[in-house]
Every structure is written in C-alpha cells, then in structure tokens.
Specification:
The protein is built from 1 helix and 14 strands, in the order H-E-E-E-E-E-E-E-E-E-E-E-E-E-E. The protein is mainly beta. It has one domain: Jelly Rolls. The longest helix has 18 residues. It is globular and about 35 Å long.
C-alpha cells in the first residue's frame, strides 16, 4: 500500500468513525464493519448465501464465499461475535493480498472450524502460521468472541478470552479483511474494528 492509499484509507476510516462509532469500554473508538443492519462495508465474492435477519449476519451451505471489506487495513484490532455449528467451516481472513480471491495462501486465516481434519490449525489458529494446542478450542453450538490484533509483524488471537496465537510474522503487511462462509451455518452479530 502506498502513502496515498494509506491516507485515503485513513480518511475513509475517519468518515466511518463519524458515521457510526461503537464504544466497547476499553478506551478506544471502534468502527462497526457490521452493526446488525447492512453490508455497506463489504463486497461479496464466491457463492456464499449471506443475509441479514433480525440483526444477525448469517450464511449457510451456499458457500464457499466471502464478504470482503472495501478498504485495506494495516494495524488494527478486530472484535467479532459469532455463532458456529460444530462442523461449520468459516474464519476471518486478514491482510488479504487479492480482494477477489481470498485464500489461506494469500492472507492470514484466523480459523473457525472445530472439525478440521488437522485440528492443530482448527478454531483459534492462523492456518499454516500458528497452531493451537490441546485441548483444542471449540466454538460449535454457542456464541463466541474472536479478538484479533495485527500491529506490525505481531499477530495475536484471543478466542473467548483465551490467547490462542501470539506470533511475529511479516509476510503480509496490509490488505482487506474477509468473513468466510465455507460450509455449515455461520452467524455474526457484531464485527468491530479499531485502527491502531
């Protein structure tokens, strides 16, 4: 991202902040990427059957598909509240390098997938970068929180209050954020971002 793009993203974030800040009580202004209403902050790609029902963003077996932010982000913190079934394959992809083709090979995939064949990269892991340890985190059948911090090369994932990832990796410096519908029911009731 060049200087002009960074300044443009900063200006857009300021406009978003004025349009709809969400305080979380921890000393910073948070911007709602999804606030229970519309999907104006995202572009849909793939076959995900995304819809907003009674303030909940959800998708089911129509995938694979993604909701990709219209903006790129460098240093930030994301807080997402989500509901998944045990077999749901989903995740939050950060610093994606291609907004039209989201993969674990061109972004950091913070996984939501309890029954992944290799559970070390299951729920709470960053696929191919940071494994989780036994007992493996489980998200199925309830509402959960993911708190993801990306500041420079440091990446931290906190799942339901437990730190599951704390690594340094500089492969991807900035890019859009994407919500995945990879199979099974996934719901988000709040997705917030705090620029750092």
């Amino acid at each position: 991202m060049n200087r002009r793009q960074v300044l443009s993203a900063s200006g857009s974030l300021a406009a978003l902040a004025l349009a709809g800040c969400a305080g979380t009580g921890d000393g910073g202004n948070w911007i709602a990427l999804f606030d229970g209403k519309g999907l104006e902050q995202f572009n849909a790609i793939g076959k995900g059957s995304w819809r907003v029902t009674s303030g909940i963003l959800e998708a089911d077996d129509g995938g694979p598909g993604f909701l990709v932010t219209r903006q790129s982000f460098r240093d930030f913190r994301i807080r997402a509240e989500f509901y998944a079934e045990a077999k749901t394959n989903s995740g939050i992809f950060i610093r994606a390098q291609d907004a039209n083709k989201i993969t674990a090979g061109n972004s950091y995939e913070v996984n939501i997938w309890d029954t992944r064949p290799d559970p070390t990269y299951g729920t709470g892991a960053i696929v191919d970068f940071a494994k989780v340890s036994q007992p493996y985190p489980q998200a199925g059948g309830r509402w959960n929180t993911l708190d993801i911090t990306a500041r420079g090369t440091r990446l931290i994932v906190v799942f339901n209050g437990q730190t599951t990832v704390d690594i340094n990796d500089g492969k991807y410096a900035s890019g859009p954020i994407a919500l995945q519908s990879g199979g099974g029911l996934i719901r988000f009731r709040r997705v917030l971002i705090q620029p750092l």
